[in-house]
Amino acid sequence: MTRHVPVVLASAGLAFALAACGGASSTGEAAPATLDAKADLSKQSLTISIWDGYSPKDLPQTVKAKLGFNTTVAIHDTNETVMAKLTAGGDSGIDVAFVSGQYAQALNAQGLLEPIHADLVPNLTNLYPEAAQLPYDKGNTFSVPYTWGTTGLCYRSDLVKTPPTSWNDLLSPPAELKKKITMMTTERWLALPALKMLGASVNTTDQATLDKAKAMLLKVKPDLLAYDDTTFGDRLKSGEAAMVEAWDGWCPTDQENIKFVVPKEGSDLWVDTMVILKSSKNKEAAHAFVNHVLDPSVHGWVPPNILYKVPNKTAMESVDPALLKDHPELAQTPADLLKGEGLIDLGEASVAYTRLATEVAAAQ
Amino acid sequence: MTPSPAGRRAAARVATLGPGFAFLTVFLLVPLALVLSYTVFRRGRFGGIVYEPTGENFARLADPLYLDVVLGSVRLAAVTTLLALLLGYPTAYMIARLPGRWKAIALVAVVLPFWTNFLIRTYAWIVLLNSQGPVNSGLEALGLGPVELLYTDGAIVAGLLYAYLPLMILPLYSAIERLDPQLREASANLGARPARTFWSVTLPLSLPGVLTGCVFVFVPSLGNFVIPELLGGGRRIMVGNLIRDQFLKARDWPFGSVLALAVIAVLVLLLFAQAWAGRRAGRNG
Lengths: 364, 285
Fold this sequence. Notes:
The structure holds two protein chains of two kinds. Chain A is built from 15 helices and eleven strands. Chain A has helices at residues 5-24, 59-67, 79-86, 101-109, 168-171, 187-197, 207-220, 232-238, 283-293, 296-299, 302-306, 313-317, 321-326, 334-337, 350-362, and strands at 45-50, 70-75, 96-100, 144-149, 151-156, 181-183, 224-227, 243-247, 258-261, 268-276, 341-342. In chain A, helix 6 crosses helix 7, helix 6 packs across helix 15 and helix 7 (207-220) packs parallel to helix 15 (350-362). Chain A starts with a helix and ends with a helix. By secondary structure, chain B is mainly alpha-helical. Chain B has a single domain, classed as MetI-like fold. Chain B has twelve helices and two strands, in the order αββααααααααααα. Chain B has helices at 5-38, 56-60, 64-96, 100-111, 118-129, 134-141, 153-178, 181-189, 194-223, 226-230, 239-248, 253-284; strands at 41-43, 49-53. Chain B has a two-stranded antiparallel ribbon with strand order 1-2. In chain B, helix 7 (153-178) crosses helix 9 (194-223). The A-B interface holds A 7-8, 11-12, 14-16, 19-20, 23, 78, 80-81, 83-84, 87-89, 106-107, 109-110, 179, 185-187, 221, 224-228, 238-240, 347-348, 351, 354-355, 358-359, 361-362, 364 and B 25, 29-30, 32-34, 36-37, 44-51, 65-66, 68-69, 72, 130-132, 148, 151, 233-237, 241-242, 245, 248-252.
């Protein structure tokens, strides 16, 4: 073993030097770029990062046909994956990223986002007025909302005795639902039902409140089938679960016996947004891209295809009424949605949520 | 100028060892050194590292919350290893004594599950064990069920055992197969019954294989985070989940690095112990 020590030390030193270089490059607060509304877009090209299946498959083709530049689509599976790329320092090569509102807020706080030049995005007028009232970015100064929704209870109407109306139906389940319910594992949504039951904010940083929430979550843990962020819809369909904590767009309400309800104590308002990176060298094309997505012909693809609501008034008005009848949660109005509490980035206090989630998961 | 024989040997050494060594340096030692260097700095608010030295990442390791997770993982991995040994030893023993052609077929059968994607194999267990699955339907038909099979520690152990049993069987097989049959014959000629021969001759001589198999099963079991999530339903976290979450959810790279380092330390200790015990067993043999 001793023979290898010098190599280990040398590479440690090298790594250290590399790391130190990375740390030294600061994220300077550059002034917003002056953008040329008449720039020749065909000389630019775009890389966007988005969740798989979250935009029309032919989006690069329609962009090319209409705007004249090439678009490369990179896929990320979670907000955290793309955050890691965007915050690693230097140019990530990504021009436009799709991230949730609280992550857009965190990116902006680090000075990584280009302000939205509204004059280059005329289709912003298609958005509902409520879409400019989102707490992580009032007035859409650095982000443009793409989809929005809330979290509630998704259940099998044939397997529950009484339809749920309260988060308490999840946190203190009746005997017949024991081992037939799932909750989400991602920390903010894990805490949400308990926080709402306590009448607290989903963005609370009060430790006493979080402790109370933890006690409620620990109490229900033995009654849960599983913690599940991704396959709860399938569990409902198979009958393995009868009631699950779910995002509205993920509740398979196309099944006759599956329903979605927002509990009476209230819930959250989540938003997935488009942001333009300050490091982008194709900012005019990036704005043209965002503008293109806000076109009802593109944005209107979302509700019928992936069952998410979009904050685009013109696009929502063109949705087939039959679809709304089959999926009542799609018909939720912006005013109703805004009753939900917007998730914001909690900065240092997010550590408390991580600890709560670990404590709940580790408890046996 | 003709290079000297010594020079040629050196050149041959560089040509043969060089590529592998360079690969390991770049893709093993450098990342390892990065992980090592992360452990002493603060987490960045948005992920990454803030280059202010701190010792608190190591202090957190002593937090009962994380200690419990680590100990719970060690327990599950140990149970898995023990069961793998109990199942794997007779299997390896029987394969080693099969006639040549059957030996090859049996070995292929042991490795065969590796040809299917790991996630798909794990999902198959979910299909099998869930409350609406065939096992429970069968039990119900017999008036015995439904039984809570999935999302338990038992399901996690079953999944780990299934995934890593071949890693136990293969080193055991190669250790047992190598044994000189004349030793067994000598033991029999000297009057030992088969059981005595096994305990006094075969088992001690195959001990290096046992140790290798145990390390091969214990280490990946300890670090696995997919099986606890899928078969444990997220109701139990193992140290692998904890490490993954530090990097992919909590944005706490320094603490994640400390945890990773702790697992590496356990691994290195185990490998040393295995090498030491293996040498001892070899000497005695």
